[in-house]
Amino acid sequence: MGISQIQQLIGGMGVSIQIFTVTLVFSLPLGLIVAFGRMAKNPALQNLVKAYISIMRGTPLMLQLMVVYFGPFYLFGIKIGNSYRLWAVFIGFTINYAAYFAEIYRSGIQSMPAGQYEAAQILGYSKSQTFFKIILPQVIKRILPALTNEIITLVKDTSLAFTLSVMEMFTVAKALAAKGTMAPLLAAGIFYYVFNLLVAVVMEKAEKKLDYYR
Known about the structure:
The protein has 214 residues and is mainly α.
């Protein structure tokens, strides 16, 4: 590969990392909020959140990206430009992964024994203190393997940004490979593997640090 091709691949790599980072930073806390809504005692709120999760998990991410991008124009007549493409990818990925993370959070929270809450109440902890100081750290320990799987999937799903013509790593590699060389696709494969390997190593270290929650 020439210097120009390498520079293009590096640019695409940067976009992929950007999509991954933005999605993770916003979908993890949003997923927790969605999980609270899913467990709410208010039936209307609970059903609304259940419908949102069902739609996000039951339809392709590629379709969701197209709805986020073209929706403002077809629904409200708002003109969209090329600058909105990357933002649409951020929004689409975030609301999609928040739904998956919400169910992971919910499973972890609901698996906690009632005795944990009762002990915290006896010690005089408020509900928020009980959750954030006692329950949440243990929940995170329990759900880390499931979170790791979703995060690894996110790394690979960044390639779906091509749906909106966002030039991330895989899209750039395909365009370069069309010129008659497989080297860019090989480079893309190595990038995804190494990226996922780093994610796995980081998450494994996080699990070991939380080993005191047993």
